[in-house]
Structures are given as structure tokens and as C-alpha cells.
Amino acid sequence: MRLAVIGAGAVGRSVVELAGEYGHEVVAVADSSSAVVADASSDSSAGNGLGVDAEAIVTRKAETGIVGDGDPADALAADYDVLVEATPTTLGDAEPGFSHVRTALERDRHVVLANKGPVAERYGDLQALAADSAGDVRFEATVGGAIPAVSTVEDIEPGHVTAVRGVLNGTANFILTRMAAEGLDYDHVLSEAQDLGVAEADPSFDVDGTDAALKCVILANVLSFGGADDPADAREFSLEDASVEGIRDVPGSVLRLAAEDGRTVRLIGEATGETVRVAPRLVHENGTLAVSGTQNIVQIETTHAGRLNISGRGAGGPETASAILGDVGRLG
Question: Is the pLDDT of residue 296 over 90?
């Protein structure tokens, strides 16, 4: 498959670096202000390995802050099979990511998303565009990094899944794990996490539960639309429909008391075809939901197969890129 990668952060760069290992060719890359597109005269469209120079792009981005000399629109107009949308998640109208998706689908190209915005905030619009296109849309990387949550739900069939829950944010989980292990308060551990690069300078997206909620909204949309006989009857979810509580107000004393009873606290998200909830919850300290550090876990409740648990790395450039390239393979 020939890929156009929009977004050159950690995830986009990892896709560029790893695509060849998965048998795919990157023919265009764009960041917010520049682009590089394989020279059409080199016959890169033939899939003969003459795409863009991945090493040169990654090096130039690190040294100069841009990927090339072209305009970002050049990458969207390139001759590709799959658009990889890896720009930062935006809420509300989910722009510019949604417009990138629209452009690709209107050209009958496939789309693979790492950007949560279009899937969490405009799922119905996304499905309508896909219905009118010869291209398909996949978005495994929007939920749980390397964990195959979406594809597992699809394989079971959404109509046979009653709920999906789990620990879906590594930053919040790292903080809660450290608070419990060391008997420390939130502010102290947050500073430690920021020093280690586990938490952003502004950690709100993670510690307030927004990131986990977006992932649960996406899962709720998969369950709702996938379980409906007619998509017109499906309920569409967005972040506004989620009940969200973060971890800022969890005191260290609660974790210490919980430990005395063999329990601990984790930020648990849950999605059904009717509700989305994210909040700190008491769980058994040796239970399946008590993953530690930056690990994530997804727990799938099914009507016939019981409870399934999938755990792994929920974020990171190569980890998320592996989910993206897995989706590309499913489109092949």
C-alpha cells in the first residue's frame, strides 16, 4: 500500500520509519507547515520502493522542525492508497483532521486514523462519508495504542458485546500507581511524572479524564453503530455525552486506606451502546484492572464468550504506529 502520512509527531514519524517493515511504501508526508512528496517521475506509484526517504525526513524534522519544502496540501493531493491521519486530536468540529479525512474519502482513498477527534466528535459524519466512498475508514490506533481493542470488538461483533471497560490512560495510571506504592500525594507524583516525561507540562487532557473519555466515546460509537440493524437507528456519542471525573482530587489517604483492605484506585472508563463513564474506582490490588505504571488494559464483556482481557502499552510512537500499520494491512 502507498501511504500519505499527515502529522509528523512521534506517531507519524514512527509510521514513516516502520512502514517498510510491514511491506508498505510512504509516498508523502506532511506536518502543519510543510510537506514532502515522492517524485512522480521516479515511478514511486508503481510500489517499487522508490517512495520518500524516511531517514532523511525524520532527521530533517528533528533538526529543522519541518519535513520538506512543499505545502501540506501537496501531500493530500498525492497519489496514495491510504491516508494516515496522525495530527493532534482536536475537539468540537475535529478540524483540521476531519477535512483531511473528507478529502481522502472523496477521492475514494482509504483512511487510517490515529487522531481521535473525527471518530469521537463526528462519528456519524465520518460513517456517512465512508458510505459514499470506495474508501474505508479504520481507527484502531485511537483506542489503547498497541492494544487491539476495536478489532477485537469487531471480530466478536458489536451486537454480542455488552460493555467495554478498562484503564485507558497511561499518565493517570502511572500517577495512581506511584501514589499507592510510595504513599505520596497527587501533586508530588505529578511533578515526578513531568520530570520523567510521562506527563505533559499541562497534564489536563490526561489527569482530568478527557483522553480516557474520548477512547470510551469511540468504543461506545462502535458498539452503538455496529449493534444497530440500521445505522439511522444508532445513537451517536461525543465527549458531551460522557460522565467524566479525573484523578486530581484523589488524596493519598484514600489509596492508603484502600491498601489496608487489599484494594487500590484506578481511573476506569466504561462504554456501552448507551452510556460512557470515566471515574476513579476501587479495584482489587491483584485484580485484572490493577495494571501498573503506564500499562493499559481493556476488558470486554460479551454475551457468549464471557469476559476477555487485553493489556499492553497504550501509547508511544512505535506502539501506536503498529496499530496504524495493522489497520493498513486489514485494508490490503
Answer: yes
User: Rounded CA gap, 266 and 174, in Å?
Assistant: 10
Q: Which structural domain, as residue segments, surrounds residue 92?
A: 2-145+319-331
Residue 304 neighbours by CB distance under 10 Å: 7
CB atoms within 10 A of CB 186: 19
Mean pLDDT for the stretch of residues 95-118? 98
* Annotated binding-site residue? 12: yes
Query: CA torsion angle for 205, 210, 211, 217 (degrees, to 10)?
Result: -160
Flag whether 15 is marked binding.
no
Write out the catalytic residue numbers. Answer: 215
Annotated binding residue 200: yes
- How many folded domains does the chain comprise? 2
C-alpha cell at 331: 485494508
Residues 185 and 244 placed together within one structural domain of the fold:
yes
Is the pTM value of this prediction over 0.85? Answer: yes
On whether both 304 and 325 belong to a single domain, the answer is no
Average pLDDT of 167-180?
Answer: 95
The pLDDT value given to residue 45: 43
Q: How many CB atoms lie within 10 A of CB 202?
A: 9
Has residue 48 got a pLDDT over 50?
no
pLDDT value of position 46: 41
Let me know if 199 is exposed, middle or buried by CB neighbors in 10 A (0-12, 13-18, 19+).
buried
> Does 51 count as an annotated binding residue?
no
User: Is the same domain home to 22 and 35?
Assistant: yes
- Domain with residue 293: its CATH number is 3.30.360.10
pLDDT band at 257 (very low <50, low <70, confident <90, very high): very high
d(CA 34, CA 266): 41
Return the higher-pLDDT residue of 49 and 167: 167
The confidence score (pLDDT) of residue 41 equals 57
Q: Is 116 annotated as a binding residue?
A: yes
Spell out the residues 6+ positions from residue 41 whose beta carbon is closer than 8 angstroms to its own: none
